Amino acid sequence: MKTEPSFRESVDIMFNRAVALMDLSPGLEQKIRVCNSTYTVRFGVRLRGKIETFTGYRSVHSEHMEPVKGGIRFAMGVNQDEVEALAALMTYKCALVQTPFGGSKGGLRIDPREWNVHEMELITRRFAYELIKRDLINPSQNVPAPDMGTGEREMAWITDQYRRMNTTDINAAACVTGKPINGGGIQGRVEATGRGVQYALREFFRYEEDKAKANMSGTLDGKKVIVQGLGNVGYHAAKFLSEEDGCKIVAVIERDGAVLNPDGLAIEFLKEHIALTGGVKGFSGGTYVENGAAVLEEECDILIPAAMEGVINLSNAKNIKAKMIIEAANGPVTAGADEILNKMGVVIIPDMYANAGGVTVSYFEWVKNLGHIRFGRISRRQEEARHQLLLDELERLSNDPAITWELSENFKRQYLRGAGELELVRSGLDDTMRESYQSMREVWHTNDKVHDLRIAAYLVSINRVAASYRSKGL
Ligand code: NAD
Question: Which domain holds residue 221?
């Protein structure tokens, strides 16, 4: 019987499948594959009258570009293997979507639900202190972001901790991304990863041949979608796909089970229900089942695993009925499951592309912090003035009695409005998701040894990392 490799081994297996099709020197191949360093820290915090010891990690996979970038995860499952796998994925992800970073990842073994806000702040600040004093958090060397179990709040604490330890660093705000908007963040960062999943699907649905490979046709409208994990990524993906593209979210799987509704779940109400009760059980807008994992095997067009790694594995891959899987989470499909699903003809949009919306908008935030100016601040009114000039001239011309057309009020309103930060961020994200998809699909359709998008994605990104090392004379 086949055994399941670890998460890091899974990433290595997929990497090896790709490099087998490339012409890299063995030395360079090894240099790209290995994780440069992993720092493990055990620190104590006095809580509830006694000292509690926590274990945290920050792994740097590749420094071919600096700073290195990758989220910080707070979860009980955090371990060195997982952090190294996620750091490697960050290297390939950044190369694929052309954000100028190396790959890194961090994690703290903790269940955030066990501690109150004040305790979480003490723990987060102490972990940040340990990383900052070793330059493992630093605007020019290593820039974390949110991941599972962390969000704007933790990023704000970490930034403040960095400022306290680097009082004269004018670029202090750029030491992490995913900050709250009033603490140096950027519009559109919270929604970015889910928004990126939506843009990725929209781009996939623009190509008839690609849809045909997944036995699908038409648009996203009416497509049946199952989402696992209604956290930051899953919630935004489900919300945008149902509210803006007409998808039917027929099931949502959470920690305590799943809710199903063949007519589509109302995502906003479900999210409110989870916030109030802590789970999906008892939601009146759908049917509850206790065995959530089994719902991954239900009939649907698109399956969106957006919770954690390894959920589609050797034990359930052959039962998957989805026509395509878009990996919103990192590593949800193991290497063994990937092989089975590819043979079954299930199209998989790989994690390193599918969830790259987060790092893309993080890149915009980092640039904004270094530039010390909001996007659009200088050009917005000037853009509006030029549009006004054109409208005035068109209206002057339309006074000619021979001209029968006139500009609608709706057009004028939309055309006159200069883009603000959120529109610019979304437009930059859309462009990134489209271009990156095109670079993958070109390899998918032109290299006859490449049969799936994951290998195509690895080929594109490994080639870019290799080019970067070569340019340094390696
Ligand atoms: P999150 O903590 O906000 O949400 C995770 C959700 O999954 C929660 O609702 C949780 O209850 C649920 N969940 C946990 N275990 C589950 C299980 N066994 N079955 C069903 N549901 C379960 O985390 P997130 O930031 O949304 O991250 C989710 C995934 O997306 C992770 O793999 C993460 O690495 C990846 N990711 C996140 C970002 C980001 O910007 N936040 C960016 C790229 C990738």
Answer: 192-357
The answer for 224, left when phi > 0, alpha when psi is -120 to 50, beta otherwise, is beta
pTM of the model as a whole: 0.94
Domain assignment of residue 250, yes or no? yes
Q: Are 109 and 94 in contact (CB under 8 A)?
A: no
Specify whether 178 is located in the same domain as 204. Answer: no
**Active-site residue list:** 105
Residues 161 and 217 in one domain: no
Q: Could you say which of 185, 214, 233 is where a domain stops?
A: 185
What are phi and psi for residue 337, nearest 5 degrees?
A: -65, -35
Return the SS3 of 261: coil
Percentage of the chain lying above the pLDDT 90 cut: 93
Nearest CA to ligand 1 atom 8: 231
Residue with token string 């843009």? 199
Q: Which of 193, 230, 253, 296 to mutate to test the pocket of ligand 1 (most atoms within 8 A of CB)?
A: 193
Same domain, 135 and 205: no
Domain co-membership, 324 together with 407 = no
Of 355, 364, 425, 429, best ligand 1 pocket probe by most atoms within 8 Å of the beta carbon: 355
